[in-house]
Prior knowledge:
The protein is mainly alpha-helical. Helices cover 43% and strands 8% of the residues.
Amino acid sequence: MTDRHGVIAPRAENLTVGVNYVQGWAKARRGAESLAEQLAAFGLGTDFQGLAADVNVWGDGLVRLGAVRPDAALLLARLIEAGTAVQERETRPHLSVRN
């Protein structure tokens, strides 16, 4: 998904013969739909209107979040942080006890 400089490749606007754009886009669509379901479950469904599947010039799927209100971005960050903390406690229970 990155170019040789480690930067996200440009989106595919002019298609190249032999590049499987559909497979990458389909994977991105599944990811975008899954994320949309989770955002809706937390009341953020309407805050990510720009959420969309896309594909880059090499056929790699991309999920675009679009413009988001700062409050929605902060809530999403907190949800990710909380989920990461739960996962950490489950995989490393000896570290979950803090003084």
